[in-house]
Amino acid sequence: MPISEWKWERIAMDFVVGLPKTQGKFDSIWVVVDRLTKSAHFIPVRIDYNAHQLAKFYVKAITDGPSERTFQVLEDMLGACVIDFGGHWDKFVPLCEFSYNNNYHSSINM
């Protein structure tokens, strides 16, 4: 695969599923990772969302503001949120995303 020249030119994505339902009825997180910078978006979703709904969330997340390691880090962060905040984990996903994106990534020395 060629090396990207622009952020968000090439992405990886996957889902973290099987989470406890929140008050907003979210039970999953859609993880979208930029292959160049390793920046990630963690988007709370429901397992029953269709492709059209997911596309809307993707455009909103990327315009507004993966690797296995990314998922492992997110699951660790969420584990702490679920233990501490139970059914309100979706409110803390933006904090997890901020923390992840402002962390040092050894693969790109940044």
Descriptors for this entry?
110 residues; alpha+beta; globular; RNaseH_sf; nucleic acid binding; RNaseH-like_sf; Integrase catalytic domain-containing protein
Q: Segments where pLDDT lies below 50 for 5+ residues?
A: none
Tell me the fraction of residues in β-strands, as a range.
15-25%
The level of helicity is: 25-40%
Shape: globular
Class by alpha and beta content: alpha+beta
Return the string of H and E elements.
Answer: EEEHHH
Strand tally is 3
- Mean pLDDT over the full residue set: 80
Distance between the termini: 22 Å
Protein name: Integrase catalytic domain-containing protein
GO molecular function: nucleic acid binding
InterPro entries: RNaseH-like_sf (IPR012337), RNaseH_sf (IPR036397)
What is the topology?
Blueprint: E1 11-16, E2 28-34, E3 40-45, H1 51-63, H2 68-85, H3 93-101
Helix pairs in contact: 2-3
Question: Would you write up a description of this structure?
Answer:
GO terms for molecular function: nucleic acid binding. The chain has 110 residues and is an alpha+beta fold. 36% of the residues lie in helices and 17% in strands. The chain has three helices and three strands, in the order βββααα. It has helices at residues 51-63, 68-85, 93-101; strands at residues 11-16, 28-34, 40-45. The protein has a three-stranded antiparallel beta sheet with strand order 1-2-3, sandwiched between helices. It is globular.
Structure at a glance:
InterPro entries: RNaseH-like_sf, RNaseH_sf. With 110 residues, the chain is of the alpha+beta class.
